[in-house]
Specification:
Elements (H helix, E strand, L loop, with lengths): L3 E5 L6 H13 L5 E9 L1 E4 L2 E4 H9 L10 E5 L5 H7 L6 H14 L2 E5 L16 H8 L3 E5 L5 H14 L4 E9 L3 H13 L5 E5 L19 H8 L1
Parallel strand pairs: 1-6, 1-7, 2-5, 2-6, 7-8, 8-9
Antiparallel strand pairs: 3-4
Helix pairs in contact: 1-2, 6-7
Length: 233
């Protein structure tokens, strides 16, 4: 399977950064790759210019042409949980719309990377219990879990893995983002590896740029072997 989710243990752990890196990583193999952010919130304003960070990052760094219509279904200006940001705009996030879009993209692209919003249990609708985790489960796609190395990561990461495992969602591996080499960060990583010995870990150091990864193959362990074998044949 060449399609997967990039999800986080919380908001602001660097899901867009990792999604963009993995997009470029797979694009360099020659495959047609698209990132897909079903829901994004928080419009950025700089002077007279407004944009959304997530999809703008995709467009700016993709090695292949991307269509804005292919990379997002819902965008809301208020930086809030999707259910509330949509409610403020008088809109409704449809789970069926998201799943149909994913299925459409999987027919058109060799690899689709779906990026989550916030954590796994972020609600998508104001009057139901539909969460991002429900959409991930219904998509039947595996996930790469992004976390951070700082205080709290052990609890957040293990709880997120427990939630994914309880739904039967395959976890391809874990990306620990923004590693600053402090003693507590090093111990947190060692502790997580002790608790989760059967999953591959990728550690991304802080203050790295997207372009600086172009000659590195650090995500190889997280990508399905059949995709890599095909690209090498």
């Amino acid at each position: 399977m060449n399609h997967f989710w990039v999800v986080g243990t919380d908001t602001d752990v660097g899901k867009t950064f990792i999604t963009t890196l993995m997009m470029r990583y797979l694009q360099r193999t020659g495959y047609k790759v698209v990132p897909y952010k079903p829901v994004q919130t928080g419009e950025v304003k700089i002077g007279d210019k407004t944009y959304y960070y997530d999809t703008t990052t995709y467009l700016n760094y993709s090695l292949q042409p991307l269509s804005p219509e292919s990379i997002n279904s819902y965008s809301f200006p208020v930086p809030a949980s999707p259910h509330y940001a949509a409610e403020l705009e008088g809109e409704w996030i449809s789970g069926a719309t998201i799943l149909n879009k994913i299925n459409q993209l999987m027919k058109e692209y060799d690899a689709v990377i779906c990026e989550g919003a916030g954590g796994l249990y972020v609600p998508l609708q104001p009057h139901t219990t539909l969460t991002l985790l429900d959409i991930i489960q219904r998509s039947k796609l595996p996930v790469v879990l992004v976390t951070h190395p700082k205080l709290g990561t052990i609890n957040h990461t293990l709880l997120s893995l427990g939630a994914l495992n309880s739904r039967g969602i395959e976890v391809l591996g874990i990306v620990i983002n923004r590693f600053g080499h402090s003693p507590i960060e090093e111990n947190n990583i060692q502790t997580l590896q002790r608790f989760i010995p059967d999953k591959p870990f990728v550690v991304v150091e802080e203050n790295r740029t997207i372009d600086s990864f172009d000659e590195e193959m650090i995500f190889e362990r997280l990508i399905k072997r059949d995709l890599l074998r095909t690209s090498e044949s």
